[in-house]
Structures
1.
Amino acid sequence: MSVSVTAYDDLMAFQRETEALAQVMGRLGWDQETVMPRGAAQQRAEEMGALEGVLHRRRTDPRIGDWLAGIDAGALDDVGRAQLRHIRRSYQRATRLPDTLSAELARITSRAQGIWAEARAAGDVAHFLPTLAEVVRLKREEAAALAQGGDLYDALLDDYEPGATAAGLGAMFDRMRPRLVELRERVMGAATPPAALHGTFPAAGQMAVAHQIATHFGYDWRHGRLDHSVHPFTSGSGADVRITTRVDEAEPLGCLYSTLHEVGHGAYEQGIAPDYALSPLGNGVSMGVHESQSRIYENQLGRSRAFCGWLHGRMADTFGDAGAVGADAFYGAVNRVHAGYIRTEADEVHYNLHIMLRFDLERALIAGTLEVADLEEAWNTRFAHDFGVAVDTPAHGVLQDVHWSVGLFGYFPTYTLGNVYAGCLNLALRAAVPTLDADLARGDAGPATAWLRENVQRHGGLYEPAEVIERACGFAPHEGPLLDYLDAKFGALYGV
Amino acid sequence: MSVSVTAYDDLMAFQRETEALAQVMGRLGWDQETVMPRGAAQQRAEEMGALEGVLHRRRTDPRIGDWLAGIDAGALDDVGRAQLRHIRRSYQRATRLPDTLSAELARITSRAQGIWAEARAAGDVAHFLPTLAEVVRLKREEAAALAQGGDLYDALLDDYEPGATAAGLGAMFDRMRPRLVELRERVMGAATPPAALHGTFPAAGQMAVAHQIATHFGYDWRHGRLDHSVHPFTSGSGADVRITTRVDEAEPLGCLYSTLHEVGHGAYEQGIAPDYALSPLGNGVSMGVHESQSRIYENQLGRSRAFCGWLHGRMADTFGDAGAVGADAFYGAVNRVHAGYIRTEADEVHYNLHIMLRFDLERALIAGTLEVADLEEAWNTRFAHDFGVAVDTPAHGVLQDVHWSVGLFGYFPTYTLGNVYAGCLNLALRAAVPTLDADLARGDAGPATAWLRENVQRHGGLYEPAEVIERACGFAPHEGPLLDYLDAKFGALYGV
């Protein structure tokens, strides 16, 4: 065994323990949001802080640098080189940040989330602004340390979407926005829009249908489970990938489509080649690709007319007429476009407009061309322009999302990037599986999930994000397929 | 601030992180036994192994030795000195064990548990013996490393019950055994023994009554929860102390009294002074004292005639006549003495005889005076003598308990020590709270739990185990009160 192979093996063994400990952190997060006793929050923060300290020391351990220097990458196969690429990136990021900055960021953001929640509840933007200004100041410092002279926002974005740039995303968003605003206006002017569901839908019935949906989309219960939480999420990698959903007895579609969204995230993690488990390749490769899976499951597949036919049958079995007479009316209700302030409640037509607004504002904050003091006004002006209504209260505007309070700058655009990727994958999938709609109409998502597993999910972190989409689709990802899909679907549904 | 105080503060800050990480390990254990997806077992073992590695490195970190050497204990108060006593003991034990031995023990015992389970299922003692011999060999090595020339068994016992000795326990057990055998024979010869409950008791009803019992005994739901598991257990310290129980629809008393047993363990952890949280004083001081709390809740309080009157009412509310007509018959069913092979199903009269058998055998194995090859015969001979029946199959005999397969030698006697302590505490509690039976008859365990919290639970690890019992009772603990209690209770109930 050569010296370089020994260094590689040692590095990978060390990394495997780190990945296992990172999984433990994920378990604590799951526990906190689902089953933890209410009075345990403060102690839990300390438990997670202690584990975070362990992880930080491991991620900045100088032995990683020594091992990396001692490896002859030429002696490795593709998988080995991809592992090294991830480890090198992560080590470089971790060691470029001064410990004091990491600690200060952790301290401020853990406090800021509480202050943001207070400000949102009170509708008091001013209460949050000094803290937000502090977060922005520290994130700019972080970006400067990471960017080494490059673009500040790109340095933050790189943590969520390696290879993406603000310039590239900005140009794409600028191409998308006029078409989306135009589609929105057409749809909102339709003469006979579909109606929402009405009725009461007992929680047990919603969870039973949610279980059926997950099963039909191939979610693996031997390596997962479905629970309630306030905000739905997916947690864990490898052999233990759990999803959650929320339940509102007046509105069942939130539960069902949140489930299907998380099934997409979960199927991605469950679909990664088992050989990659507890290695840097054993997680979804980026937020954008992750979101492409949740979005294609939720929207292009789950909100299709074909699948809605099958789902309407399950709703009728469970809830009688389900508040929508007939499968067509149910399909309309599932895809109802409605003006709304809240990103997380937005339909497919509005959703990306919410993201572009945030992207432009946070990019300006990090660039220093927008002051925190001017943020609310900038938000409200832009919202009125893109959505045609005025923000009525800060909880419906600049205070609605938790992201900025916890330091997530550069994260928002990956949602729309995920939608764009989902549009591309949908095009390629339908070409590869001509029976798709007939399958979905029977509730059989097997061929769709098999294609996604084979072409996207199993690769984990093996390829760069854009590369995995291009390999699956046979073309470089772009916004066209998503916009065409939205035009066709909502034009037909709304008769506009 | 003096140098010694700085060393103390540094040591305690380091220790606090270790305690927080130990709590994380507890969360993983809870998760594994209650909610973990079945297919996640192998990955979970690796996650726990990685965390165990972190804990081991912290517990043997040479800085602990430096800090301990730098502290002037004379400058500390009682609490500080007690903290140091725990840290010093734990550091000494951890550093006396060679890393290779710890690793080998971890490897063998994790394998041995599976082999034991196979052997038990197949009734094949020979399948388990080579592995058990290996475990015994390693435990003797461990004991030799720890004992430094002292008694081998004492060195193992010390991990569970600091200050106890095999000689002292052995002498006490030898005093107890003739009286227990004699009581057992009297009771089993009774003319009209009480009858068991008959009927079907739906799981939801059992869990509802179990919740009521826990609530009436002061279990704090803000800092805990109750779930199902195959084997009931308590997990966690400080602000997050969870309990589990099991449910058999044909036999509700197992669920209810397992719950009350775990409520005793849980109340102890929840009752420790909050100042001690995440410090060495923030856990129950020993297995024996822990078991004293679970046993007095379960038996001296929970199986009393007074509390059974209240509980019979809840059973009747939930299940109709509850299979026992009248509170007296219910009290009889709760305290029914029955010959049985299985320790965990044993009544108060038989239970300690099960322990003494195991104590004598494991002490001989560690001393080297009994060979593993002769273990089954020794078990069966002793069982026939003490219980008056022959073991019919190894799963009912030498293969029934998991303990030895996972390396728990020196643990069994703490169960009976807990019973002895519970007997002492019951005597003192009844003297201090003359209204106890009237309170329990109303389902009010408040005065009892308040006395136990004040006199035992809140101290956590502040005093040595026997010392905390002596302080609570006003006399040195001994077996007399337990034996007198058993004689009086079962003599009256069985009319013998």
2.
Amino acid sequence: MTGETRVRVRYAETDQMGVVYHANYLIWFEVGRVELIRQMGLDYKSMETEDGCSIAVVEANVRYKAPARYDDEVVVRTRIAEFRGSIIKFAYQVFRAGDELLLTEGFTSHLVVDKTMKRARMPERYAELFRRVMAE
Amino acid sequence: MTGETRVRVRYAETDQMGVVYHANYLIWFEVGRVELIRQMGLDYKSMETEDGCSIAVVEANVRYKAPARYDDEVVVRTRIAEFRGSIIKFAYQVFRAGDELLLTEGFTSHLVVDKTMKRARMPERYAELFRRVMAE
Amino acid sequence: MTGETRVRVRYAETDQMGVVYHANYLIWFEVGRVELIRQMGLDYKSMETEDGCSIAVVEANVRYKAPARYDDEVVVRTRIAEFRGSIIKFAYQVFRAGDELLLTEGFTSHLVVDKTMKRARMPERYAELFRRVMAE
Amino acid sequence: MTGETRVRVRYAETDQMGVVYHANYLIWFEVGRVELIRQMGLDYKSMETEDGCSIAVVEANVRYKAPARYDDEVVVRTRIAEFRGSIIKFAYQVFRAGDELLLTEGFTSHLVVDKTMKRARMPERYAELFRRVMAE
């Protein structure tokens, strides 16, 4: 299962090199991650507010292939690359809409934490779904 | 009393026009505001965490005179323009260091709120100091 | 004529008060402005690259009514409030989708500039359209 | 040779988890990189404007150890981990000032490019210095 979401490049996201500033891809990865979770039938917001279950980033990696530019529409494809215990790894690819040029790819690894930022187990009803989605 | 603080323009803060993206001045205003509060002998962080007293922005205004550019050092001058009840208004001027060119000026108005974002009175020991600083 | 566009609040846009950081509304205003221009049949990107015609912000104003929160969908409504010579003023309202709660309103004033950031006249084919849209 | 620079956490850099949003470390890495270059006696701004020589990011990696919080002062330590041909790799560590707690570490790899974003050789007077600094 791969989540797919679209982002239009904002002027604020460009830098003086005339391309998207590199840190913004981490923000788009997060947009992709949240939408994948939504497509799984979950709601990351409720996971945080109702279950006190956050997924804190422990590692992020981005490889830049080609620059996105102002007003480009880009597609973020997200999948769960790994899930065991309290570790989740998401993998991402960002494409330019239209010609499907690969712009960046990368991953983020997360630790399930509680409200005090301590390592925690993911509530079982979420965990089951994560395992199932990864197996698809 | 005027607080003064310096900011070096980051690459991330530029846009493809080759100048600082306009929303960033609000972030620098906030840097100036926090430093003025620190120069008053207070600590905005403790006001929030210990006293549950935040100052939520209710209005912001920026007038752009000249663009800041990458790697420029800029000076933010902040003063309290108004303080009554639970309303505080800060006024700002941002200059380019060196030639003192005025880049932007503006203000932000704030409402004192408690942890639930409800209007609140500022604790008297802070209020007294704000009144004194404004009178200087 | 009022342009309308939707934005989903990103985690990156929140701050530790648990609401959207106030500078982000200026970024959303820009998203609204660009989409209004697109709905007018123009393309701000081409205006910049092909005609060397940018609209630099000279003033921005935001009044905050209610906070947007993570994952909220918000609606940005944008209209041209003024257009004469090389000055354009856009007015904005940001609503929470669903219950139509007004979150912020504000305006930005712009000066038409050329590639060297000098005041310029807007190319007549754009100017005509701006006048027509404002009159609607 | 290790460059060292200090950054004060801005309110805008926090998120609703109450800690610094993870993408901001890439911005701080860039602050560290530019300051290291300055401490080498160079000026990244002139490299770009006078020599048309940019260093575009091709990979970025961050490992998150402990969260930075609002108003923390953090220290960014930067060194050149690799330099050959048109590839430069910088390594970073971000510490909390005071107790020297390690918050994040990571690297960014860069390709030297010209104004058209094409791979280029670094001008020899810069290259010599980069080699010397790396050998120290």
3.
Amino acid sequence: MIAAAPSSTHLPIRLGMVGGGSGAFIGAVHRIAARLDDEFRLVAGALSSTPEKARASAEALGLARSYDDFAAMARGEARRKDGIEAVAIVTPNHMHAGPAIEFLKRGIHVICDKPLTATMAEAKKLAKAAEQSKALFILTHNYTGYPMVRQARAMVEAGELGRLRLVQVEYVQEWLTEAAERFGSKQAEWRTDPARSGAGGATGDIGTHAYNLACFVSGLTPEALAADLSSFVPGRALDDNAHVLLRFPAGARGMLWASQVAPGNENGLRLRIYGDKGGIEWAQEDPNRLWFTPFGEPKRLITRNGAGAGPEAARVSRIPPGHPEGYLEAFANIYAEAARAIRAHRSGEAPPAGTLYPTLADGLAGMRFVAACVQSSKRNAAWVAL
Amino acid sequence: MIAAAPSSTHLPIRLGMVGGGSGAFIGAVHRIAARLDDEFRLVAGALSSTPEKARASAEALGLARSYDDFAAMARGEARRKDGIEAVAIVTPNHMHAGPAIEFLKRGIHVICDKPLTATMAEAKKLAKAAEQSKALFILTHNYTGYPMVRQARAMVEAGELGRLRLVQVEYVQEWLTEAAERFGSKQAEWRTDPARSGAGGATGDIGTHAYNLACFVSGLTPEALAADLSSFVPGRALDDNAHVLLRFPAGARGMLWASQVAPGNENGLRLRIYGDKGGIEWAQEDPNRLWFTPFGEPKRLITRNGAGAGPEAARVSRIPPGHPEGYLEAFANIYAEAARAIRAHRSGEAPPAGTLYPTLADGLAGMRFVAACVQSSKRNAAWVAL
Amino acid sequence: MIAAAPSSTHLPIRLGMVGGGSGAFIGAVHRIAARLDDEFRLVAGALSSTPEKARASAEALGLARSYDDFAAMARGEARRKDGIEAVAIVTPNHMHAGPAIEFLKRGIHVICDKPLTATMAEAKKLAKAAEQSKALFILTHNYTGYPMVRQARAMVEAGELGRLRLVQVEYVQEWLTEAAERFGSKQAEWRTDPARSGAGGATGDIGTHAYNLACFVSGLTPEALAADLSSFVPGRALDDNAHVLLRFPAGARGMLWASQVAPGNENGLRLRIYGDKGGIEWAQEDPNRLWFTPFGEPKRLITRNGAGAGPEAARVSRIPPGHPEGYLEAFANIYAEAARAIRAHRSGEAPPAGTLYPTLADGLAGMRFVAACVQSSKRNAAWVAL
Amino acid sequence: MIAAAPSSTHLPIRLGMVGGGSGAFIGAVHRIAARLDDEFRLVAGALSSTPEKARASAEALGLARSYDDFAAMARGEARRKDGIEAVAIVTPNHMHAGPAIEFLKRGIHVICDKPLTATMAEAKKLAKAAEQSKALFILTHNYTGYPMVRQARAMVEAGELGRLRLVQVEYVQEWLTEAAERFGSKQAEWRTDPARSGAGGATGDIGTHAYNLACFVSGLTPEALAADLSSFVPGRALDDNAHVLLRFPAGARGMLWASQVAPGNENGLRLRIYGDKGGIEWAQEDPNRLWFTPFGEPKRLITRNGAGAGPEAARVSRIPPGHPEGYLEAFANIYAEAARAIRAHRSGEAPPAGTLYPTLADGLAGMRFVAACVQSSKRNAAWVAL
């Protein structure tokens, strides 16, 4: 036997987590994503606002260190030589800014769930903190991690669609068709609560994903939108359906539909983009396939790692074509990008070419999107600049 | 051998045609549709505005009588004992009202292509003529003839979706992605010409179909819309893309997208309707299948004449499940409905229960839709009442 | 008005029908197919073995002449100046040969339903009669009429798949999952009755279609097969499921599966062919689309009349891409081919290039297929030469 | 901060690996699968037959201990208090038996790639060793780990399909369409080499997966098969295509098709099972959806964790419906099952109810399948008992 001294470049990055105690959906997703490529090791956590629950969750997960709250964790970890290098923040929206600022202040990289914050005021504070920190801020708009989303973006960028005209995006769910928030669903409770979610319901929860995806792939940012928001379920304080018209620079136009009350739809995030030379179509529920439809030629189906797929997709893919990768792999790709950036940051370098993770700018854009939707809808779907 | 004296109930109805000379697409469709169920026999025509072409076309089709223009035909046929009982009008939009009024005046039933007319003024005149005539007026919004569209309508009506909340409809094409109207396409020429098409481009040509289908299946008529129309191809006088928000009575909302510049889409007419109990989804390019998604139950796929399909679909269907029926059969269903109504009309009866063909009211609604889209778009997508 | 003397080239061909009285499924299909392109006019019939039923059916259909039996009809029509030029035979299998021979003898073209006959002995007699007649014999293996089937055949022929290796074909139904023949289904009764159907059950009814399609598209005829037939429903005299291995010349191999006891399958006729350069895939329930998968390139979806579709498909297609054509149109294409051939025959010419209708040779091949399946299965799936 | 002493039940299991050095596909898959649920930690390896490569790979992966060969590793780890508890064997087929026996002998659990071995003789030796060992033997027939495969199995077991009649399974690939083994593909080299793969080519590599899946879901084991194997690529020593007929007890029948020369197919593993009450259909490339087609009712689509999916699927699933899980998650499910069994084994208990991982018996069944295919094919597709 020979000791295989692990090369320092492959030592997992020490990770902490705020939120994500037992029962939380997205915390578990972040942990799997962090672990999948062996780039992070979760060692510390403030997993719950209830200290006992935090401790029990930490023990169940085998964490080395558990804290009663994020502030204690930020202080404690910053002091240690083997303290965490990055922290994942997976709390409800209103609890993003506080911890994020605390860790950024101490130079600890932040990987934060979306949307950025619950309010624009918090978002601005967070932005300031991020600017003043040397640490990185990564927002988990995870759908941009899908290989065929990267492929689509690369194709648009390379001009294969020609000049863009249309961006049609939708994110459609069914889970809030009834008043789940009144029947004991914790997930539904905070997501329909303005105090915890912010001003946007479906808009904030999934509309921001759709918006981010559309911008990511098209390379365009809308100049203005007109939104018609609805709360179909009686007594619901936030929108559960959003109909949005989009206007992009140079005349491109789009539609965005976000709904949580469309029975039969699970996570129907779907993007279609058309230019004067061709179109693409991608759906999250069938993520390994991308339609490319050059005008006047047969439709082409490009599969992950299959013929026609380029290096941008291969870079964030692990297995051969025909073996489906899914949501967790795409989420892990954001973590892998974060790891690349963090490793580069250690040595004062820029992240390797092609590193694409959602940033604070994406988070702010999402906040502006939600605010504009709410404002437009209040003004009877008048146009609001972005 | 025994002469099989055809029972008078099954003597084909004598049909004339205005427009539809050689080379016209929709004329040939009407002829097949009229013939498919042996309910009509085409005997006379004014098939072209050019007399020689009219005559040559009539000869090629084996018509008994050819006329130089529709006025001569109306006069001539009205005079004959064996004159036509019905006429199909398949000219460009600006040539609908004239002939329609002429035949209605003489008590000859009119089967007219959509949209109703090119202008609202013509539409009103036509409406008046129809009111004053005893003859029937049938508008070929052919997509309502698909069996699974009938099935969907019946399910909505029966309350299987609960109270409706969302109506999402789109009709997406690619054929005007480039300036086909400048490269010799007759179809593209008149459809992009305001003098012949009217105020709506994509709006009139396919938007009216989408609008009609949404109303037909949902049983709802929007109260207001907000539209953002575009003409993406330089120099094009009419819209080639329409983004429309819809508001229905009782709080239901919707989106309508009509486009002729989306590469990869051939005739992507797709309807999705959601209520508080379930949803349906149907697509014209896969017309024999209907998704029904009751909330909280497995998704169900209902096939034409398959398990779960009801009498409303069976009534307009000819062959067993798994043997696809298509566009021509759906079109023929409108003709078959027309035939039922005409036969009933002969004996002074109401059409049999379940007869559903698009009427003048549908045509007027379509005209209002186009006008409202144009008006709203000029006012920067402000809401316009319908 | 000017009389439009129909050019003789477009006078519909006078057609008679044997079988197809009221209630029969396939008779109605043949009538629509004959009528769809206005190439035939049905004028005479011996529509049922019961004279009253025959007469009533003829009257309901508006036929000029009704006969009590096919022999009387053959004699009677042959004598008339305006007698039928062609006859459609749409009886159960055991009633194909008799009428076919009778009409062929008198120089009347025969359009006959498949399979050719119920027994090989009949098939041989019919073959002899056909040889001795100047009249044409057309077998309605209707699936070869689909435009994308023509497209597939043309691509194979042009070498786009390279040298063929694999031919996988299946025709899967569900309708005989239970003993429908004992519960009043006329269709099920004769199709499961050896006296009327012949030696093959699923094999004859749908296996012959699958076999014919595979041969038509691949251009190959198997040298040998090994078949394992089953009758899953207790008491059923004929096979309701067939598992068949195929060996083609030059080393290509295949599998054929025909089943009528597979719940969830309506008319699942599906063909996949692979060569050393690429593959194709087509399914009857989605007939307007053809997959073409050149090795090492993105998969391509070719649509009827869309980009990439060639003249062989366009020739048998009526409407633009995205407007689905279906089963009846494909069936009508066989009739249209028959009409072309009959018109050419009139003037002593060969049918126009590209005319492809199934012939007596196809019928005999189907009979050999059924016989070989039955023989192989009795010998425990031993190889039987074809 | 409070130390969160990890509960012993959640300490990851110490894992070693034989094979899987840099560049190997399946080794990386096993590592991700082992890591995904945090149930295993890879600490030792004999990752390559070349010591330097082994060391470099171990270092790159951050392994604590690297060995030059599996024998040294077995001895070394058995001696340590903190030695590995389980080993993953991810070498080519001919290198399964040797290491497996070595570790089993020392009471170390074995997680072994499929097929079991290269030869039946080795398989028998391995079986003996497994019988004599207290350690567990887990075979990674990973496709049985998909949630909807579990769902399908549960539905069959619950009788929802009635009495089974038909089992149709196929695993179709394209990657060996050309002679990849002569153009530098390591994967292709050993998989087409009898010395390393054994007697089966496509049969062993993917046919065993298809066979295992069919048996797993149907609960049936064939009594006999008839196989027609081909080597389409000139010079290839092993089969690259297998056509197989299956006979199950009590009269059920099936077909199995395994191919590596079908362009357009990536990993087309597809299973269809039909009984006298209904059918199911599942495809690996779209793994989160399962069709259930009860005879006489609308087709139902059951989604992972969606309505209609039961506890057997939920048990091996991590995220909500509509967020696709894929190949790695299914593979990880086999590891998670292994972990459950290993933890239970520690305390002398049986694995928790519902634990389903492929065992030695599955491996032996796979070996018999390959042997029977080869034997049958040599005898011209004669039936061979299993």
